[in-house]
Design a protein that fits this description.
Layout: E1 6-9, E2 13-19, E3 30-32, E4 36-41, E5 44-49, E6 60-64, E7 67-73, H1 90-192, H2 197-222, H3 250-270, H4 284-297, H5 300-313, H6 318-330, H7 334-347, H8 356-372, H9 376-389, H10 394-413
């Protein structure tokens, strides 16, 4: 029992100092209600039935310097005759304990219910806010569609007017050609009906003169109308992909976009620490390019950090593990290089001609890490596997030959 304590009071508060005797106290060691105070620090115990009720909500306890200092605010301003209630028998003490525990349980239950209600209200507010944002986005998209529709309608009307002008010009040209054909036929008929040479000459002269005048008038009529000046604007539909849209690639592109959206959804739900990053910094491809630049500059540790974040965003890209293995080789993290190369080989399945180069690099990097760990047999196996994939690579063949000599030298020395 901790019986040594000191206390003083004012009209509104009681100040109690309790020594700890070398024991270590935590906030969980203290229990306080309106008229009951308990401090349990095994093997020590302090228990007090207070003289009058206190405001346990605003009362405080500070632990430090080997003491617990209580500041207990009285519910009713008055001076106490003593700190504890005099002549408190066991039955009354037991009753006060049980009442304090029950009240504490009810208070904890009320706090839990309040937290639950508050959490539901926050969820409801978040849902409403999300619905408002989605509604605003939907309205914005509809407005853009309506503007685009109006624009296309205007362009279609302009095209129709241009088509009408072209049809008019064609009809005028056809009429001119028909008129010329009729004149030719009339000229042939007149030549056939001429009775003598003299009259024919005079008629021919007159016909020539009349024909030349008519043809001149016809040429004037056949002049086309000036073409209307206009500016044709071509608007392309925005695309995520740099290549042009092809029907044969639609399903493949939609699948890629779906996977990207699913990955972003997983990131937003699971990686709350990435909320401060920019949108492009959440793209594994952008992170891979950035890490490649860091590797080229010799910043291997920064490249590893970038690859780590890219792997957290998308752990199905074998090139991320393959490039990170190269960084680990430069940093002498040989076991991690072996682990990343093995993971890259696991993802580079099935073996196809498109991933031959990546598989060769994975085998070479894992074999290099094994050799630097002096595990030459395992390293030789990886180099031989790389040679099976690319048998014309002279560099790999030379390195494999060196490893064989090392193994033979090791066996002879042993």
């Amino acid at each position: 029992w901790l019986r040594e304590h000191s206390w003083r009071q004012t009209l509104t508060a009681v100040f109690l100092s309790l020594p700890l005797r070398g024991a270590r106290a935590t906030p969980a060691s203290i229990f306080c209600s309106e008229q009951y105070l308990k401090v349990s620090i095994p093997p020590f115990l302090f228990e007090a039935v207070l003289y009058a009720p206190i405001d346990d909500t605003n009362s405080t306890a500070k632990i430090g310097n080997g003491n617990i200092f209580f500041t207990l605010y009285k519910k009713e301003p008055a001076m106490w005759d003593s700190l504890t209630l005099a002549n408190a028998d066991k039955e009354k003490l037991q009753y006060l304990r049980e009442a304090a525990v029950l009240k504490a349980q009810e208070k904890a239950k009320e706090q839990t219910e309040a937290k639950k209600i508050s959490k539901q209200e926050h969820k409801k507010y978040a849902l409403e806010a999300t619905m408002k944002v989605e509604e605003a986005e939907r309205k914005r998209i509809e407005d853009l569609k309506e503007k685009e529709r109006q624009k296309v309608t205007k362009e279609l009307e302009l095209w129709k007017n241009q088509q009408k002008d072209g049809d008019k010009y064609k009809s005028i040209q056809k009429k001119g050609e028909l008129h010329q054909e009729i004149e030719r036929k009339n000229e042939k008929m007149n030549k056939a009906q001429i009775p003598n040479e003299g009259t024919s000459k005079t008629r021919l002269k007159s016909m020539k003169g009349s024909h030349s005048i008519f043809s001149q008038n016809l040429k004037e009529e056949q002049l086309p109308v000036p073409r209307a000046a206009a500016t044709v604007k071509v608007n392309f539909t925005p695309r995520v992909f740099p290549t042009a849209l092809r029907e044969s690639r639609v399903a493949e592109e939609e699948e890629w976009l779906h996977k990207q959206a699913e990955a972003r959804r997983i990131i937003n739900s699971d990686l709350s620490e990435l909320e401060d990053l920019k949108e492009e910094e959440k793209n594994p491809d952008w992170l891979k390019d950035k890490a490649n630049k860091m590797f080229a500059m010799g910043d291997y540790l920064g490249a590893v950090n970038a690859y780590n974040l890219a792997v957290r965003l998308n752990n199905k890209l074998p090139l991320l593990y393959l490039n990170r293995a190269a960084c680990h080789l430069q940093l002498r993290n040989l076991h991690k290089a072996i682990e990343d190369s093995s993971k890259a080989l696991e993802l580079l399945t099935p073996p196809v001609p498109d991933n031959e180069n990546a598989r060769v690099k994975a085998h070479v990097r894992r074999g290099t890490a094994f050799c630097q760990l002096e595990l030459y047999t395992e390293g030789l196996q990886d180099y031989e596997a790389a040679l099976k994939i690319d048998p014309r690579n002279k560099n790999i063949e030379k390195d494999a030959e060196k490893i064989r000599h090392l193994i033979q030298g090791t066996m002879q020395s042993s």
